[in-house]
Request: fold
Amino acid sequence: MKTLNCDDADIKYWLALLRIDGIGCRTFASLIEEHTPEEIFTANESELLAWGIKKAFVEAIIKFDWAAVDYDLQWLAQPNNDVLKITHSLYPDPLREIYDPPPLLFIRGNSHVLAYPQIAIVGSRNPSALGNKTAFDFAFELSQYGFAITSGLALGIDATAHQGALSAAGFTIAVAGTGLDRVYPSSNRDLALEIVNTGAMVSEFPPGTTAKGSNFPRRNRIISGLCQGLLVVEAAQKSGSLITARMALEQNREVFAIPGSIYSPLSRGCNAMIKEGAKLVESPQDIIDELSQYKSRISSLRAEPEQSLLDLDQQTLLNLIMFSPTSIDDLVESSAQSVKSIAAQLIMLEIQGYIEAVAGGCYIRVK
Reply:
């Protein structure tokens, strides 16, 4: 049976409070300072009013329709899906420290990649060929060094940054502006599946949330909030990328920008950010040098898998098992080992907690 990182019995009350109209991140935080979500939903109307909760919220709590939460719980019960409360130990510390952190962070993929120091890479949705190459090369090299690459799964620079990290066999994190039961834009569906196999998609929006314009500025503060440094690659003077960069500055993150021609509209945003204090970078090494304090953290995280007691065959097989369902037939084809040998190794990997059996005779990697 699937075990959530956030396996508290009261998770349904957190999910319900998140779905009350008008309760944003700051209001949510103030409500749970004195009372848990479970206490709020099990109290009567007079108690809620006595606690100083607004009448409109009290009415919504008393009349709450639990069908939406049932949908959330069904989504969470599926392999590879998770949610972290802001109080959970795996909730990323940098995100917890921003002005308005999301009380719940939905995750599709490997939640443990959130512990890695992250570089966010953002930029134009219609980049030049040079801009695409720059984003890919920076993501590839920074990922090889050990940073997780974070972006927003948008067309253009975002998608290229994710692809650069994947090509380096590194971790990448996509922050969505929708619920994680859908992919926006839909043309990036295959890329999203690649990301969740080794990295993660995250969102503050519950399952079922569709793409709305107001969601994406909120999404952007999470991109900047998760990272230790943010790189802007090609951006017009008025763009969402510059909004994200300014959010990063407000959150005391390091902001880097690729300079460009004074004649190119796609360079004006980056050049303007450099004037405002962003650090001009010409190579990934410039960022690595600036964030050298994270070297030991990266080294310790990278060393953790090497401490396992797996033999070479088991480790090789584990590397072929995805964080989404992987069949024995797939493993036979990929490994060229016999079914009998693979079956024996799967038992050992499951006993040691590296994988879990799921429906359809498949397995998923859990660490």
